[in-house]
Amino acid sequence: MDFLKANLMWVVMAAVSGGMLLWPLIRSRTAGPSVSPLEATLLINREDALVLDVREPAEWSRGHIPNARHIPLGQIEKRLGELDKYKNKPIIVSCASGTRSSSVCGTLRKAGFEKVFNLAGGIPAWEQAGQPVTTR
Description:
The chain has 136 residues and is of the alpha/beta class. The protein has seven helices and five strands, in the order H-H-E-H-E-H-E-H-E-H-E-H.
């Protein structure tokens, strides 16, 4: 006990750094697996995966994955019913960085969607991989 009192700052730093190391593992379990742009393309072409873009309308209008469905993050809860027919199909969720889409992946999993994937790196990674975007 004396050791903890004398070294409280070091103990707290060790606990915080340990938590930071575990955070990606915890986060990936709730969000599910991520896919690279190449893996996403394979899912789209081979398994007719739905791409769900959860960015804001202004971001969407600047460019999105062709044939993607747009439901902004703030509307996901009330518009989940629109996605019911995709419960047994792969769904690739995309955003600008992978943070918002990660959150939506967790929401979809809790709602009973079976094959949910987060697009790693979001739309910038998709574009960087040379994949097409459209403004239509």
